[in-house]
Amino acid sequence: MPNPIKNVLEVDNTTFTYIFEKNVSIQLKSNNRGIVRANVYRPKTSNKVPVIVTYGPYGKDIPYSDFLKHSFEEINPKHQSVHSAFETPDPRFWTNEGYAVLRADEIGCGQSPGILDTMSKNTTDAFCEVIEWAAEQPWSNGKVGLLGISYFGGSQWRVAARRPNGLACMIPYEGMSDYYRDRSRHGGIAAMRFLKFWFNRQCKSNQYGLPGKAARNWGPDTIEGDLSEEELELNRRDQAIDNGNHFFRDEDYYASKEYNLEDIEVPLLSVGNWGNIVVHLRGNILGYMFAGSKYKFLRLGMGRHDLPFYEEDHVEMQKSFLSAFLKGNDYNGWTTGKRPILQYFSRRGNPGVNNPEAERSTFLRKKGSEWPLPNTQYTKYYLSASNTLSLDPPNVTDTPIKRLSYEAPSTPEDPKLIQFCTAPFDSELEITGHIVAHLNVSATSSLEYATAPKDIDLFLTLRHFGADGKEIFYTGTIGNESPVVKGWQRVSLRKVNKDHPRHREWLPHRDYFSTDVKPVIPGEVYPIDVEIWPTNVVLSSGSRLVLEISSGDTQGVGIFAHDGEERSVERFGGLNHIHFAPHYQNWVSLPIIPQSE
User: Fold this and answer.
1) CA pseudo-torsion sign 436, 441, 447, 453
2) Average pLDDT of 191-209?
């Protein structure tokens, strides 16, 4: 550190409808006894109040309007203020509701010195101390709630499992709960394009000591002054580089981030989004399923990643939940059984993409007593060598073994794929829940590449086509056209741990340990179960469902493409095959919900 730490606390009691304390220093026991700097926004009252805490790398002092201008302009105006920040609760609104808001810069970011190491044990240690500090303040009633989107949702799971003193409830919005499976390595395949973009734009750009932030309208410059490029490099752990260098969950890089969802005991409201098919949705659902909380609820919505959090109905839900567990005023029945365990939007019809009003008026609001829905009928649709998808197993007894082939590897810009299509449905069919595809796959050499393939990456997509033959798209994370859902699996990491307590037939559990790697030999056929992420769609009469299998990402993946250096032609180049025979049955198990549901 080139300059000593300064005390630069600023307190403003007059400018705003709340007390604004800027750059409060929270002394840590962890992280070499460093500090976390936070902004505290408090109601002007002598009463002790509950505290909503957020902790992350995006910058407590970067205005939402600078961080992502178009998004800020589209959110509910009630949550637009000079202190609004991306993906976090607005201080003006929540102080008016009787809450203090504490927004902290994560270690190594903004005004908090230290090593920038997002989602690490060290940063969770600091988060834990920030929560306990908030609960101990003289203006606090001793109860802390967590509320935020994406990073500010995903980090909640890890810190809640630590059970910090004062933590009373959590509301993770679109927050992955499994660093390896949900975010970094889907099916063992690294999502490098997003990791690079995210780290460079969202985190590295706000590193503590980085010069020129004020000149770029990216918050104020570092209080203690700039660091040299050499110091900056030593003080950060690049998530994209680290994921590119580490492959298995038993490596310390991943293992140090692990925790047990069952250790979470505080009341939990997990809010997922059907359109977030590559980062958070799985984590919201599995986090809800396996958390140890007595009071836990799951809400599954739709629309863009950034807008629903600030919509009136969502905010009222947040207010009533926080009131129940931070103020002791359960006016909406979260503790009495009045509120359903599960609520979800059922995607019926075709309202178009990125049209929230049309989606709300078209999609159905449904409830459930548990997840998965209690009388889900897991139904196999069989793939055939004639590219059909049917309830009837293909008749292959009197024909030679067949295979369908496609080139590998491929990219979103040049996809290589095969598709299997149902006949038009003669009545409406709802699919809600977890999906598994069982495939018999192999890889062989091709004339295009000099080396033989050593592995297979499977990329699966479910698509919905209307009676008019046109694909029906749904709103994706950033308002993009999204298919129904996707799934991925690296065949060398196909080993399933059926003895694990989280394993289900509809949710195969893989440990992804270095000891689990299995060979992939050219020409040998491997049966494999591929987890496709949980989803919902209602197939109307006359519509069709398509299962797409590819050697790389296809339409709908957007910036979340899996195109790292590890997916080289030396390793994957060749032909991939799906095999069909009496002993090679291929199917996809769909969670069908009876019409009465």
Assistant:
1) positive
2) 96
